[in-house]
Amino acid sequence: MMGLEEIIYKYALINAVKHKGKAMEKAVIGAVMSNEPQLRKKAQKVLEETKNIVEKVNKLTPREQEEELKRLGIKVEEKRGAEKKKKELPPLPNIKEKVILRFAPNPSGPLHIGHARAAILNHEYAKKYNGKLILRMEDTDPRRVDPQAYKMIQEDLEWLGIKWDQLIIQSDRIPTYYDHAKKLLQEGGGYICTCKPERFKKLKDESKPCPCRNLPKEENLKRWEKMRGMSEGEAVLRVKTDLKHRNPAIRDWVGLRIVEEAHPRTGRKYRIYPTMNFAVTIDDHLLGITHVLRGKDHITNTEKQKYLYNHFNWEPPTFIHYGRLHMDNIQLSTSKTRKGIQEGTYKGWDDPRLGTIRAIKRRGIQAQAIREAMIEIGAKIADSTLSWEKIYGLNKNIVDEIADRYFFVSDPIPFKIRNLPEDLKATIKRPLHPDHPERGYRQIPFNGRVYIQKEDLKGAKLLRLVDAVNVKIKNKDLEYHSSSLKEARRHNARIIHWVPIEGSIPANVIMPSTKIIEGLIEPDAKKLKTDQLVQLERFGFARVDKTNKKIIFYYTHK
């Protein structure tokens, strides 16, 4: 039969496991009084004992709390909360035929978490409707193309679990854009403008046509042919819109222009390149795109493109604009990141301070966590905020199940425990994962010579070395006190992890700030493989980056 302290201890553990490792004193008292009516007459004693017991329970790690409940034979229903219903995206409007979507990045660098939203939403909707997803590289500005990005983007998408049905590279389609440029001129929907940019802007701002706007079609077609021999800035093809439009940016926008710089893929084969709005409109129509999902910062582009649809008498796709995605303390600008890499501020596209898919992957965050976050945010018009804490929470639900456990001691201090009985020296077996004994056990030799974390010594009088012994701190040394866990609890000992001096392996953990935490890890860590996810007990989750004489980890989160 349980005594008063054991009963309170039980309810404190249950409450802690239900609330992310933190038991609440009032809730524990309420549970005791509600479920143990025989103790109501001892209410004062319950109040007195609960405070100390809750403090003791809250010093345990969440995993230790769960292990204690298992030891007591208590099962908490769905210890991490009831399984939430899987989030689904709302239906797409205007479903008339096979749904065809596209993800259309500019190959100026690898993808970042902002791109992931567009990619994942388009992929999820393609799956939802058994439709088609096109990956389209929008590379019609040679000045913004990174030759490595074509491959990096595809690698990033593959890691995210995104499969595309067709790959389109716009620089392969320049003749198609030329054909439609000529057709636009023939139908009077565009004109070749040779006005100086400053002159055109002044007229545009006054809602007045430039002298080129009303030239005959024949003259525009002649100018189109001559344009191939002109220099950059001498002429552009403009798409006719409404010169009185409230937004001057929409008035007669540029559809094609001359770019002298060589293209990384096609060299100097072409000198006239379509702008994004021109190429996108042509491709979306010819590829049969039914729905365009993109940020609301593209609303002006959508309005521009609709003029081109009207000129060609095409039916536009359904446009869906979603709100901005805000993330604090994260670098998403590709140009700033590239500059930072060139200047040595960042170590590469996978620097842990960045928000690139590569950096996220290197830290051990799972693609599924990113997918779940983006599906939850969805394609709503309202702006959204995504915190690292949200991503960490989703990721923990995934990695907690797959990560094997190991002891890692940062800032290690060596000790030889004095007066340790010989019969307590042994090889300690500890499961790789507490919920999966079938995975096997770690072998941790214990002979009294151990490394302990400097932080764990502060303010402590009695320490419990997990699965080993209890020691007291005496004259900056450790002395054997007792062996039982019960005795440690009775004396309110601090429960800590440790590693043996013999066989321990040097290990560094690279934090998201790039700060390096140096330490030592238990001997069985020599079996770890690159890319393996682990939980360094009482420290956090991490991904194995390198395994040589020293193991290098990238920190994931708590």
Give an account of the 3D structure:
- This protein has 558 residues and is an alpha/beta fold.
- It folds into four domains: 68 residues; 170 residues, HUPs (Rossmann fold, 3-Layer(aba) Sandwich), CATH 3.40.50; 101 residues, Glutamyl-tRNA Synthetase, domain 3, CATH 3.90.800.10; 116 residues, Beta Barrel (Ribosomal Protein L25, Chain P).
- It has a seven-stranded mixed β-sheet, covered by helices on one side. Strands 4-5-6-7 form a four-stranded antiparallel β-sheet. A four-stranded mixed β-sheet has the order 20-19-18-21.
- Helix 5 links the parallel strand 1 and strand 2.
- Helix 10 packs across helix 11 and helix 14 packs across helix 15.
- It is elongated.
- The two termini are 37 Å apart.
- About 1% of the residues have low confidence.
**Helix proportion:** 25-40%
Radius of gyration: 32 Å
Uncertain stretches? 78-83
Assembly form of the protein: single chain
Task: Say how many strands there are.
Answer: 27
Per CATH, the architecture of the largest domain is: 3-Layer(aba) Sandwich
Strand arrangement within the widest β-sheet reads 12-25-26-27-23-24-13
How many distinct folded domains? 4
What is the count of helical runs? 17
In one word, what is the shape? elongated
